[in-house]
């Protein structure tokens, strides 16, 4: 059975992977916008909102792990 530290490391790897995917998507959308695709602004806003929701969810998950550790 994994230790709390190992669980936390697994969670961090998951977070890093998700943030990387979000950042790549965000960068792609910015490049498309610079190319004249202004209609993608809504997608950027949606992506930004999803990132904020993901960050809040991650904070909750980390808080739960910290509570279990205590």
For this entry, give a set of tags.
70 residues, mainly alpha
Structural summary, described in words:
The protein is an all-alpha fold and 70 residues long. It has one domain. Helices cover 86% and strands 0% of the residues. The protein is built from two helices and no strands. Helix 1 runs antiparallel to helix 2. It is elongated.
Which secondary structure elements does this structure contain, and how are they paired or packed?
Blueprint: H1 4-34, H2 41-69
Rough outline: elongated
How much strand content do the residues show? Answer: under 5%
Cα gyration radius (Å): 16 Å
Q: What is the number of helices?
A: 2
- N-end to C-end Cα span: 18 Å
Report the sheet with the most strands, covering strand number, pairing sense and barrel closure. none
Number of strand segments: 0
pLDDT averaged over residues: 84
**How many structural domains?**
1
**Which ranges are low-confidence, i.e. pLDDT below 50, for 5 or more consecutive residues?**
none
Summarize the structure.
The protein has 70 residues and is mainly α. It has helices spanning 4-34, 41-69.
């Amino acid at each position: 059975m994994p230790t709390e530290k190992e669980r936390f490391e697994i969670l961090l790897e998951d977070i890093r992977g998700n943030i990387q995917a979000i950042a790549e998507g965000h960068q792609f959308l910015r490049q498309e916008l610079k190319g004249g695709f202004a209609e993608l602004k809504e997608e950027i806003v949606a992506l930004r909102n999803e990132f904020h929701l993901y960050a809040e969810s991650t904070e909750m998950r980390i808080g739960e792990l910290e509570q279990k550790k205590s």
